[in-house]
Amino acid sequence: MSERIIVINPNSTTAVTADIDSALDALRVDTGIAFECLTLDEGPPGIETQSHVDSVVMPQCRLIESHDNRASAFVIACFSDPGLHAAREATRKPVLGIAECGLLTALTLGDRIGVIAILAGSIPRHARSMRALGIENQVAGELAVGLGVEELGDEDVTMGRMTEVGRRLVDDMGADVLVMGCAGMARYRGRLEETLDVPVIDPTQAAAGMAITASRLGYRTRTQRMIS
Q1: pTM of structure
Q2: Residue with the larger pLDDT of the pair 54 and 227
Q3: 145-192 pLDDT, tens per residue?
Q4: What would the mean pLDDT of 21-25 be, rounded to a whole number?
């Protein structure tokens, strides 16, 4: 089987999938690994609540099962890492969540992490993940831009708000590395990093980089418990 990493956008907004796909271009060069980005048609337009997270778990597992023989690894491209552990029971292939990978990558580039969320309601959900990873003491803070997933395509408004929030995280809260808390923010990473002069992590790129390693080394989980 050729090396193919399947990246799943768990919301149904195809523009977000397109942004995710574009963000992976830098990782397609000379790796010999193909990236394929899929949209979960059953998902909500944006994953903005715990109910949204819960609603995509089983459809996402079924999607993984249906593509299992084509993939060497999977990436779940939503910062809530929806259904991550259930997905890992649906396949023996590595399954990487972008929040987990983005936050762990940030720890290699700084001491105090700042996270840019889309909506304030996302912050408690993200905080639970940070506590589960045991890194809450290394998080300087998380602030929201106040835009839903579907609104992130307005580049002037989104860039302005991300810059404002990023400056507050760096100047007022002491962050020395930033993580963008939504896969739909991918197009803004380069400009934000240049403007704020701190490392900015696109978590989908971080997860994809780890997936390349997992694919190239042929990692597998020990057991497979299929979801029906």
Answers
A1: 0.92
A2: 54
A3: 998 887 887 889 999 999 999 999 999 999 999 999 998 888 899 999
A4: 92
Query: What stretch of H or E contains 180?
Result: strand 177-180
Please, is 1 exposed, middle or buried when counting C-beta atoms within 10 Å of its C-beta (0-12, 13-18, 19+)? exposed
How far is residue 188's CA from residue 60's CA, in Å, rounded to a whole number? 27
- Can you give the C-alpha Rg of the chain in angstroms? 16
Phi, psi of 6 (to 5 degrees): -100, 125
Q: Report how far Cα 57 is from the mean position of its chain's Cα atoms.
A: 16
Beta-ladder partners of 8 = 38, 76
Name all domains of the chain by residue range, CATH numbers in brackets: 4-97+205-216 (3.40.50.12500), 100-202 (3.40.50.12500)
Strands 177-180 and 200-201: parallel
Return the residue matching tokens 């987990």. Answer: 100
Q: pLDDT over 90 for what percent of the chain?
A: 80
Which parts of 21-156 are beta strand (E)?
A: 34-39, 73-76, 95-97, 113-117, 139-144
**Distance in angstroms (rounded) separating the CA atoms of residues 120 and 147:** 9
Q: What mean pLDDT is predicted for residues 100-112?
A: 97
Instruction: Look up residue 87 and give its two tokens.
Output: 């997905």
Cα separation, 50 vs 209, whole angstroms? 27
Contact of 139 with 113, CB cutoff 8 Å:
yes
Q: Which residue has the tokens 């105090």?
A: 112
